[in-house]
Design a protein that fits this description.
The chain is an alpha+beta fold and about 220 residues long. The chain contains six helices and nine strands, in the order E-H-E-E-H-E-E-H-H-E-H-E-H-E-E. The strands form two sheets. It has a six-stranded mixed sheet with strand order 2-3-1-4-5-6, with helices on both faces. A three-stranded antiparallel sheet has the order 7-9-8. Helix 2 crosses helix 4 and helix 5 crosses helix 6. The chain is elongated and about 60 Å long.
């Protein structure tokens, strides 16, 4: 569950309005912290000065890893502040990752990039800086405007439909090469099928998942 929300705006009131909307809270139900001085836009391209605040529900329970979350907020604040991007930020923890979602003011497409390439670069930089500053291994998933979650949901739906087809036809299906996180989604999406399994073939960037009828020959094949 989100512990706090960060937001930027030309004024504190403007940033607070965004944060309260994300939290679904009233002003008297939250604590407000001003995080940084105002930033100028990168080379004047995005323009304007901003203030960045953190808004936390007064009755919120600090989740484990709160210190790490603070580092993540700082790193992303520095990156987007340098670009002059106005945004709100939520951080959630799950069993296997810290999930960060950024909502920008009309610049989601710029931050995502073609095929998610810019977003992947942002995620890589955030993970590297986090590890360098804390000395701890990080597994941080960065999303913009829900892009990653929508993509993952569609991947789950596709994997389950194909698993049903493989179950009926008894013919394997090979996915296109995917990132490790996407391959894992497919493995998990198909795990509950009794007569279908998955395994991984290929090397490096060409690794891909195969959905196959479950037989003794597929039991020992590698996943990831």
């Amino acid at each position: 569950m989100a512990y706090s929300v960060e937001a930027t705006g030309k004024t504190i009131d403007q940033a607070l309005e965004k944060a309260l909307k994300d939290l679904g809270a009233r002003k008297d139900e939250v604590d407000i912290e001003v995080l940084a001085e105002t930033h100028s836009g990168l080379l004047g391209i995005f323009g304007g000065k901003m203030v960045r605040i953190r808004v936390t529900p007064k009755n919120a329970k600090a989740f484990s890893g709160a210190e790490g979350a603070d580092v993540i907020r700082t790193v992303i604040g520095e990156l987007l502040g340098f670009m002059g991007v106005e945004y709100t930020l939520t951080i959630e923890e799950s069993d296997d990752t810290t999930f960060v979602n950024i909502n920008s003011s009309g610049l989601d497409g710029l931050l995502i990039g073609r095929g998610g390439e810019t977003l992947a670069s942002i995620q890589h930089v955030v993970n590297r800086i986090f590890t360098k500053r804390t000395g701890r291994h990080s597994k941080i998933t960065v999303d913009v405007g829900g892009y990653v979650r929508r993509k993952h949901r569609l991947l789950v739906e596709k994997a389950q439909k194909l698993a049903e087809r493989v179950s009926k036809t008894q013919k394997e299906y090979d996915f296109e090469p995917l990132k490790a996180s996407e391959r894992r989604i497919i493995h998990l999406a198909v795990a509950d099928f009794d007569d279908v399994t998955t395994y991984t073939i290929g090397d490096g960037l060409l690794r891909k998942v195969v959905i196959s009828p479950k037989t003794s020959a597929t039991d020992d094949r590698p996943q990831d």
